[in-house]
Amino acid sequence: MDLKGRKVTLHDMCLRDGMHSKRHQISLDEMIAVATALDDAGVPLIEVTHGDGLGGASVNYGFPAHSDEEYLKAVVPRMKNARISALLLPGIGTVDELRMARDCGVSTLRVATHCTEADVSEQHIGLARKLGMDTVGFLMMAHMSEPEALVKQAKLMESYGANCIYCTDSAGYMLPDDVTARIGALRAALNPDTELGFHGHHNMAMGVANSLAAIEAGANRIDGSAAGLGAGAGNTPLDVLNAVLHRMGVETGIDVFKLSDVAEDYIVPMMDTPVRIDRDALTLGYAGVYGSFLLFAKRAEQKYGVPARDILVELGRRGTIGGQEDMIEDVALDMARGDTEQQHQMAGGSA
Amino acid sequence: MKIRAALIGSGNIGTDLLYKALRSDWIEPVWMVGIDPDSDGLAKARELGLKTTHEGVDGLVPHLAADNIQIAFDATSAYVHGENNAKLQAQGVLVIDLTPAAIGPYCVPPVNLKEHVGKQETNVNMVTCGGQATIPMVAAVSRVQTVDYAEIVATVASRSAGPGTRKNIDEFTRTTAGAVEQVGGAAKGKAIIILNPAEPPLIMRDTVHCLTADEPDQEAITDSVHRMVREVQKYVPGYRLKNGPVFDGNRVSMFLEVEGLGDYLPKYAGNLDIMTAAALRTAEMFAEEIANGTLKPAAAAS
Description:
The structure holds two protein chains of two kinds. By secondary structure, chain A is α/β, with parallel strands linked by helices. Chain A is about 45% helix and about 10% strand.
């Protein structure tokens, strides 16, 4: 694979996706320390929000240690070169939170929808672009759509004003060929000025390999997180990807040793449990289940005595998507009764 | 004598409402209004003997007096409801708002229908499908003890969410959260909506989490929740408590499923039924008031 001379923007996720594995309890001091160290290492773009994006504070997803506004106000003014991004999932956050983030100095707004539901993002993408923000359309659980279907959704987001479109492997399910097919189709169909991005998870240990496949197929923004801190078995380990890209002659502008120091000295000590591919995280990738379900399933196992792995497999079978954390306790209750109620996921009539 | 009504909006909600209104003892649907001459809803309405126009409310207004239309249901979108409402009210028509515009007071029938009696209201808002499915549960807890915070998660099948709902997604969350507080009785409310594209489509699912101020009285809350479920089932028979109430510290959670009658979309689209059945029940209450003379919409005949 020849990527020599390519320029890629690496985007760190540990202060947003990492919030999932920290149960949204990252302190303001930790936020500031990590963001400052990432900035010093040369990371150009850092995401800061609740794990489920702006407005994610809830019983369903977890209440964070601090509000999005508090985190953003603490981090943004301390950045020397790095820019700060925020995630927004329509249906959870609204344009009110978008405006708040903009007022806090967020430069990049990423509007995330399930890979088939892009048309709920029109008002948010439109407003972010109108406010002059770097506006990203973020198509989650992209493994559930074939490339042609993903292109249609991406074109909607592009038409609303997104200047960058992401293929997001929320479940860590994709293999490199899946990434090549999707990014390749997007590159062929979208405006040449529209940037492409890839967001990987490491549940099948494919984070780095998938990111390389994405770059080869035309992506120039890649998400990852120092030491991989993120949902499931974590995001693509950014420190590792950065080192690989340096070896391949790809320009990232990030110091290899400084970023690996951030991972080792800041992120690893913050981890509640090691972010690794345990049997439950592997199940996410294997069955194609949304990454942030992991800790909820482990907690349901504790409370109801049903193995997390079985809960995750059942959630995959029921076709759950990002945001349906409420289904985890519901499924666990069904399974604890020995009642998977198969008849309930069947539609009552024909379509 | 039935009160004559117009249905504005020929999408999923308007068309489902049409089927239910045709079975009403109090309401006679006379007009169906759309903006797309090729819409499936308008075609269905014509087949069922209604008068139709594809020129929006402007196409209906000249006929209001002659056809003695006293109630209109608006199932368009929050963005156009304000304008529709002004045109209809200028003609003395009482408006039932099925968009999340929320110009008028919220109505969730099993909780506060009776509060709307005798108020001479000219516009009432039906909140959202997620609100109709969940606010009765919030109220069932808050009538037992103080609820500091209530949060609802509504998951509907993608195929049952039309373009209006999709464009109005922020209005959905705001309006639902507002009604969780004002009608549900929670000090603070939050709403989340998820569109799930699974095939075959999933039946509408709703989760309600309440955080009570003090330790929840499990027996009293469980009893109250089951009584409220039976109230909702009177007009939406497919409304079911699937799991719960679950108690975890001060958290009380209910897991619901809403199966529709399959009038327009198949039975998975319980989100249509809970909205249209609630709107119809509200309209019937007003129709009864009009019929017995306690509510007098400004004379439409002029």
